[in-house]
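Postdoc handover notes: sequence design on the structure in folder B. Input C-alpha cells:
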C-alpha cells in the first residue's frame, strides 16, 4: 500500500511538472519554437522555412543556428530574414562548428515556445505537422515527447518510400502512448529529430543545464539520440502513426539513415561505446540534477530512474557510482547512496 501511494504521488508530480513547470498546457494557440540547425544546407533551408510558414497553426517562432557553414548559407539565411518581416525569426551564426548537439545547445536559451521542434535544415513538414502533434500532446497530457512517421524523399523531393516506420512493422497502432521507462535503451525505435515535438519542461531545461563540452564532443553526430532517450525516459512518448515529415536522403545522410531503426538497434546490441557513455551522461544528469528531479518526481521517481539504468547496464552504473558519489555534498550523497543501495537490494532479491 505504501509503494502504491508513492507511485500515485510520483505520477501526480510528473503531471504537475508537465502541465505547469514551464508554460500553461491548454492555451488555445500555444507558441511552437522551431530550432533549426544548419550546416551547408543552403540548398534546402528555404524549403523547410516555407513548410513552417505554411502550417495551419500560426503561432510559431523560427530559430536558425548556422553551424559555421562553408557554403552560401549565411546569405540565404539573411535573405530569408529580410523577406519575412512578419514572422518571428531569430538567427545565430556559430563561430566554430559544434556538431548537431552543440548547435542545438547553443540555441536552446533562445527558445520561447511552450513546445519545441528540433528541425534538420534539409527536411520539410506537411502543413498539418504542428496541428497533429499538438492534438497528440493533448491526447496524452503527461508525455514530454510526440513522434510522427516519416517519408523518404530524394534531393529533389521525389518520394522514395512512404510511412517508413509503419511499413517496417515498428509502429502499428494509429496513436499509442508509452509511459516513462516503458522501453530499455535497446528496444525503443524512435523517429529522427525533425519528426518529434517536445513539451518544454523543467526536465528538458535540466538536460541543457547539465550538458557539458565533453558530452557534446562525444555525441557530436548522435545528439538527437541522447535527447530523445532522455525525454522518453522521464516524460514518456506518444507515437502518432501519420506521415508528416519529408526526410531527405542525399550524399551526407543516406548511409546513416536509410535503415534508421535497424542501424540504431544494431549499434546498441554491438556495444557501441557511445551508448555506454549515454548511460554515464544520464547518471551525471541524475547526480547533478538530483535536487530538481527529487522535487518534481519524488524519491520513488529517482529510484525508478536508477533502477531502469541499472537493470540494463549494472557494471556501468556501479562503476559510475563508486567513482562520482564522493564528489557530492553530504546530504545529497547520503540520499543518492540510499537510493542506489535500495536498487542493488531490489535486484539481489528479485
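Designed sequence:
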Amino acid at each position: 500500500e505504501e509503494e502504491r501511494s508513492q507511485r500515485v504521488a510520483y505520477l501526480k508530480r510528473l503531471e504537475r511538472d508537465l502541465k505547469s513547470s514551464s508554460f500553461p498546457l491548454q492555451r488555445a494557440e500555444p507558441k511552437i519554437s522551431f530550432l533549426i540547425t544548419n550546416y551547408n544546407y543552403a540548398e534546402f533551408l528555404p524549403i523547410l522555412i516555407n513548410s513552417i510558414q505554411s502550417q495551419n497553426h500560426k503561432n510559431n517562432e523560427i530559430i536558425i543556428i548556422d553551424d559555421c557553414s562553408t557554403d552560401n548559407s549565411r546569405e540565404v539565411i539573411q535573405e530569408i530574414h529580410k523577406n519575412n518581416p512578419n514572422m518571428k525569426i531569430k538567427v545565430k551564426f556559430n563561430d566554430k562548428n559544434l556538431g548537431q548537439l552543440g548547435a542545438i545547445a547553443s540555441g536552446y536559451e533562445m527558445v520561447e515556445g511552450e513546445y519545441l521542434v528540433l528541425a534538420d535544415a534539409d527536411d520539410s513538414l506537411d502543413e498539418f505537422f504542428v496541428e497533429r502533434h499538438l492534438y497528440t500532446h493533448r491526447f496524452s497530457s503527461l508525455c514530454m515527447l510526440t513522434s510522427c512517421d516519416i517519408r523518404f524523399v530524394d534531393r529533389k523531393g521525389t518520394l522514395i518510400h512512404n510511412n517508413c516506420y509503419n511499413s517496417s512493422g515498428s509502429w502499428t497502432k494509429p496513436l499509442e502512448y508509452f509511459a516513462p521507462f516503458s522501453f530499455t535503451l535497446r528496444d525503443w525505435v524512435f523517429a529522427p529529430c525533425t519528426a518529434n515535438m517536445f513539451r518544454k519542461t523543467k526536465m528538458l531545461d535540466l538536460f541543457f543545464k547539465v550538458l557539458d563540452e565533453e558530452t557534446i564532443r562525444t555525441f557530436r553526430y548522435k545528439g538527437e539520440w541522447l535527447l530523445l532517450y532522455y525525454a522518453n525516459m522521464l516524460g514518456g512518448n506518444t507515437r502518432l502513426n501519420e506521415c508528416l515529415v519529408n526526410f531527405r536522403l542525399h550524399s551526407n545522410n543516406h548511409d546513416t539513415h536509410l535503415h534508421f531503426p535497424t542501424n540504431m538497434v544494431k549499434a546498441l546490441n554491438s556495444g557501441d561505446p557511445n551508448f555506454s557513455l549515454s548511460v554515464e551522461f544520464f547518471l551525471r544528469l541524475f547526480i547533478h540534477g538530483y535536487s530538481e528531479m527529487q522535487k518534481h518526481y519524488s524519491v520513488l521517481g529517482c529510484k525508478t530512474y536508477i533502477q531502469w539504468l541499472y537493470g540494463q547496464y549494472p557494471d556501468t552504473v556501479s562503476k559510475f557510482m563508486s567513482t562520482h558519489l564522493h564528489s557530492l555534498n553530504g546530504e545529497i550523497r547520503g540520499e543518492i547512496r540510499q537510493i542506489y543501495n535500495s536498487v542493488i537490494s531490489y535486484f539481489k532479491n528479485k
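Context for whoever picks this up: The beta strands are 32-38, 60-66, 89-93, 115-120, 124-125, 145-153, 159-161, 175-178, 196-199, 237-248. Don't rerun without checking with the PI first.
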